[in-house]
Amino acid sequence: MFGGVVRKLTRLFAVVLLLSSAVVVVVVPGSELRVRVRLADGLITEEVLEADSERDSISLEFKQGDGTLVTFVADFKQDVKIFRALILGELERGQNQYQALCFVTRLNRNEIIPSESMARLRQKNPQAIRLAEERRGLEQLTMSAAVNLSRAWQLSSHIHNMCSEAREAIYTREADVKYWLEKGVDGSMFEVLPQTTELPGLQPCHSAKDLWQPCLCTYNLRLEWYPCLLKYCRSRDSAGKGTSYKCGIKSCSKGYHFTYFVPQKQLCLWDEET
Ligand SMILES: *[C@@H]1O[C@H](CO)[C@@H](O)[C@H](O)[C@H]1NC(C)=O
């Protein structure tokens, strides 16, 4: 009973974190933030950021100019992050309506702000087009292991929802697998995929000739805007003592370059143009 009251009070007096130099806005319940963001190709997209304090997670979703829906989830409970891309297929080339890809990897400390801070984030001017304050480089990720969807719940309760459409295309890094095994996660959910060393004929998909041959696919995505750090401001209390408090966020942009095995070049047709 007290829990409810305390929660209400905390909500009432919650510190509102603001984007840029805006003024305090009414704290509305619910924790969804819609931010207008300019993508690399100049297009403007609406990014939806959501915080789930109960599950201690953040999700971020936006549509790219080519129609691809990109979803990112940071699961702080399990220190796991999940990227999903729903790529529109080319029906005239015999592909499905869309193709789903899921990349699961370790969430490092301080990559993104905590979910409870995210839940308090508000913006004064929702129409403003936001540009990240810090543009981070492209991280290379070699996703050489597959994750079995029906066993992946142990790794993160979000994988099932996020990746059910990807099924045969849920990937992770071997270094992450090693780390999770050491933490006691059941190894039967992982399967190491063929590498260049084992299959000498394995080549990048863009240089593979046959649509049915296995190859190494690459996929790039960029989280164009996300709150990566909390900003602290200093103030003096009545006794003249200095204190610091959370007063905003720093925004970042970061690119990811995934390399992974596909059993058929057909599943990696975007690699042709690169
Ligand atoms: C994934 O796990 C399920 C349930 O444990 C099992 O039935 C299935 O064969 C596994 N799939 C693969 C590809 O190993």
Automatic annotation (TrEMBL):
Domain Out at first protein BRICHOS-like as annotated: residue spans: 31-180
Top-level taxon of the source organism: Eukaryota
InterPro entries: Oaf (IPR026315), Oaf_C (IPR053897), OAF_N (IPR053894)
Domain Out at first C-terminal per the UniProt entry, residue ranges: 205-272
Record has Transmembrane helix as a keyword: yes
Residues spanning the membrane: 12-30
Pfam families reported in the protein's UniProt record: OAF_C (PF22873), OAF_N (PF14941)
Protein name: Out at first protein homolog
